[in-house]
Amino acid sequence: MTDTALPDTTVHPTPVPATPPDTTTLTCVFAVCRAGRAEAPAGVSGHTEGGALRTLPAGRLTAVVQHVPAVGFSQEALRERLADRRTLEECARAHHEVVSAVAAVADTVPLPLATLYLDDDRARSALVGNERRFLDVLDRITGRLEWGVKVYTVAPRTRPERSGPPPAASPGPGAGRAYLERLRNRRQERDRFHDAALRTAERVDAAARAVAVAARRLRAHGPEATGKHRSQVLNAAYLVPVGQERRLREALAPYQGTPGVELELSGPWVPYSFTDGSALA
Q1: How far apart, in whole angstroms, are the C-alpha atoms of residue 161 and residue 158?
Q2: Do 164 and 180 meet the contact criterion of CB atoms below 8 Å apart?
Q3: CA 33 – CA 273 distance, rounded (Å)
Q4: Which one of 39, 115, 249, 277 has the lowest number of neighbouring Cβ atoms within 10 Å?
Q5: What CA–CA distance (Å, rounded) separates 274 from 187?
Q6: Containing H/E element for 225?
Q7: Where does the UniProt entry say this protein principally localizes (predicted)?
Q8: How many CB atoms are located within 10 Å of the residue 253 CB?
Q9: Is residue 38's pLDDT more than 90?
Q10: pTM of the prediction?
Q11: Is the separation of the CB atoms in 215 and 209 below 8 Å?
């Protein structure tokens, strides 16, 4: 999960063929709630190319859906469009805005970006076929929200060392040995900071789990996301009962300001990490 809590932006495998036959629109499903709980959210429009947001009854469930043009949302078209980072971000934000608006009024299972069906009947059939699993997930997340915790190790600020071997004109016979010794000491210092951050991360995780009802370790972000001066050692999501936010903050407070460590708490978010909508749709 990122700080903006956007959904997984991998194009979700759907029952839509590469070129949908004899149809002008597809049904895009954003989120699923218990029957009668969801309503078409006001103030958000979904995908700009699509029609109005609406609800789709499906047995004991209700989905929030939108008709989208088949020509722009076939698998081939989506692969091409979402290869562009700007278009991908626009689609992901549109999806997330709908999910967040629905979740503001009802317990919600968010579905992955670009969950598409040929028509309403096929979408309804898929939802009813997974009805029991959706209801189980809704039971799990009712009255609970997701919080994200990230821990980074931050290397101590030191004066940059000259790269390459010591200059030929270095004074004294021990200059080269001293240069290598400084490099070795810096590596050892970085390793010590990293090991200390890992231990702190484990304590942070244990403290958060003591408050949460469920937890997930997520893939750590690389330097392209964290920056070159810090390294992520914990990226985790916690499912926390509503009303326990203060307790969570108090549990993590002792680790704020730990030397060489940065701790970030974000949320609350729609519980994307605990609904596994990709396995349900």
Answers
A1: 9
A2: no
A3: 17
A4: 249
A5: 39
A6: helix 223-226
A7: other
A8: 12
A9: no
A10: 0.76
A11: yes
Q: Are 216 and 244 in contact (CB under 8 A)?
A: no
Tokens of 110: 């968010």
In whole angstroms, give the CA distance from residue 114 to residue 3: 21
**CB 98, CB 30: distance < 8 Å:** yes
End-to-end CA distance of the chain: 20
Q: What distance in Å separates the CA atoms of residue 67 and residue 39, rounded to the nearest whole number?
A: 16
Amino acid at 119: D
Q: Report the C-alpha gap between 241 and 146 in whole angstroms.
A: 9
Strand partners, 25: 69
Give tens-digit pLDDT for 129-177.
Answer: 999 999 999 999 999 999 999 999 886 654 444 555 555 555 555 667 7
CB 264 within 8 A of CB 149: yes
DSSP label at 44?
-
Pairwise CA distance, residues 158 & 281, whole Å:
51
Cis previous bond, 254, omega within 30: no
- Residue 11 has a CB neighbour count (10 Å cut-off) of 19
Of the candidates 12, 11, 2, 27, the one whose C-alpha atom is nearest the C-alpha of residue 83 is 11
CA 199 to CA 181: how far, in whole Å? 27
- Comma-separated ranges of CATH 3.30.70 domains in the chain: 145-273
Q: What is the pLDDT of residues 224-264, one digit of tens each?
A: 777 777 889 999 999 999 999 999 999 999 999 888 899 99
Specify the pLDDT at position 23: 61
Tell me the two tokens of residue 166. 């010591």
The 10 Å Cβ neighbour count of residue 162 is 8
Do β-strands 61-69 and 116-117 pair in parallel, antiparallel, or remain unpaired? Answer: unpaired
Q: What is the pLDDT of residues 203-218, one digit of tens each?
A: 999 999 999 999 999 9
What is 145-273's CATH topology?
A: Alpha-Beta Plaits (3.30.70)
